[in-house]
Amino acid sequence: MSTGLIIALIVIVAVVAIAAAVLTLRARGPRHGANLKRRFGPEYDRALTRHDGDTEAAERELAQRVELHGDLRARPLETAERERYEAGWTAAQERFVDSPREAVAEADRLLADLAAARGYPDGGQYEEQLAALSVHHAHHVDGYRRVHRVAQARVNGGHEGGAGTEEMREAMVEARALFDELMRPSRHDGGDHRGEPEGHRTGTSGHGRPHTPSLLHRRQAKES
User: Fold this and answer.
1) Nearest CA-CA partner of 171 in 113, 92, 98
2) Which residues contact 151 (CB under 8 A, 6 or more apart)?
3) Closest by alpha carbon to 170, among 188, 197, 191, 147?
4) 19-34 pLDDT, tens per residue?
5) Could you report the per-residue pLDDT of 84-139, keeping only the tens digit for each?
6) Keywords for this entry (predicted)?
C-alpha cells in the first residue's frame, strides 16, 4: 500500500471520527436541555431570561443546582411542628386583610423557617435555599421569591417595587402552594407520591385533607 493511500485512509478515518463526535454531542445536547426544561418548567425560562437568552449558560446553572441539591431528602416534621406552621400561616392569611405587607413579610419568614426545618439550606442563605427549593419544587418556588422581594423591600424602606395589594395577594397565593408542598409528607417519611406530578399535589393540606379556600380568596383585602 502506497504512502499516499495510507495518508488518505488516515484522513478519512479522522474525518469520520470527528463527524461522529459532533453528531453525538448534538444528540446529547437537546436531550439534556429537554430534561432540564421538563424538570424546572418556569424556572428554566427564568434562568434563560437571566442569562439574556444564552441557553448554554442557563442550562449550566440549572445543572449545577441539580448536582448540588438533587440528592436532598426532606426531613420529616413532627406533629407539633406541623401544627405550629399551619397556625402561623393561618394567622398570616388573616392578618393580610388589614396589613398585607406585614402578612407577606410573615409568610416569607415562615417559608424560610419551614424549608430549613425540612432540611433545605438555612433561610439566612436565601439564594442557596431558593436554588435548592427550585430543584424539588420548581413549579411553586416563585411564590417564595415574590414574597421575599416584598419583605426585603419593606425592611429596606422601599415601596415593594410598586407592588399593590393585588400583587401581594397573588404572591401569597403562590407562596401557599409552596407551603403546602413543604408541609406534605414525602415518601421518605410516610407519604408516597411516586408518579404524581408536583403541580397536581396542591389540592390538599399537609395532613392530606383538602384545605378550604384561603381568606385571600374569600375576603377583600384593604390597602394598608
Assistant:
1) 92
2) 104, 105, 108, 109
3) 147
4) 665 554 444 444 467 8
5) 999 999 999 999 999 999 999 999 999 999 999 999 998 788 999 999 999 999 99
6) Membrane, Transmembrane, Transmembrane helix
Return d(Cα 21, Cα 6) in angstroms, integer.
23
In the chain, where are the structural domains located? 3-69, 79-218
Report the distance separating Cα 105 and Cα 84, nearest Å.
17
Whether 187 and 144 have beta carbons less than 8 Å apart is answered as: no
Residue 102 CA from chain centroid, whole number: 23
pTM of the complete model: 0.69
Instruction: State phi, psi for 204 to the nearest 5 degrees.
Output: -130, 165
What's the grid cell of residue 217?
380568596
